[in-house]
Amino acid sequence: MSESRPPLPPFTAETAAQKARMAEDAWNSRDPARVALAYTIDSRWRNRAEFLQGRDAIQGFLTRKWSRELDYRLIKEVWAFHGNRIAVRFAYEWHDDSGSWFRSYGNENWEFDEHGLMRLRIASINDLPIGAADRKYHWPLGRRPDDHPSLSELGL
C-alpha cells in the first residue's frame, strides 16, 4: 500500500495553503526524519546549486543544514497553484555559530504525486545578513503561532 499525505491534488486555494502550512510546520520542527517523510522515496531536489535524489539524501542534507543554520524559523506563503503543483515563497531567519544573523529569502516549486507526496522540489534562495535587532521572527523554536504575521503582513 502506498503512503498518503493529504491534502491530495488537485489543489484548491484552501488545500494549497494547508499543504504549505504543513510543510512550514515540519521544517520548523528541524527534524530531518519527519520532514523527509513528506517526499517520495525517489524525490528529486534542487536546493540552490545542490542536486539531491531520494529521502536518504534529503534527510542527510537537512541534518547538515540545521547543524549550520541555528535557531531556524521559517514562514512559507503560497504564491500560485495548479493541479498537482504549488509555488511558494518563503523567508527564514537563522544564525551561524559565530552569532551572525541572516534572513534567507526564496521561492520553491513543488510537484506532488497522486498520494500527496512531493516528488519534485526546486528551490532558489538568497541570504541577507541582518543585525539581531532587525530580526522579525521571535516566537519560541518550533511551530509558528497562528497569530504571528504572515510574510505579506510583515512586508517581506
UniProtKB/TrEMBL annotation:
Pfam families: DUF1348. This is DUF1348 family protein. It comes from Mesorhizobium calcicola. The lineage of its organism: Bacteria, Pseudomonadati, Pseudomonadota, Alphaproteobacteria, Hyphomicrobiales.
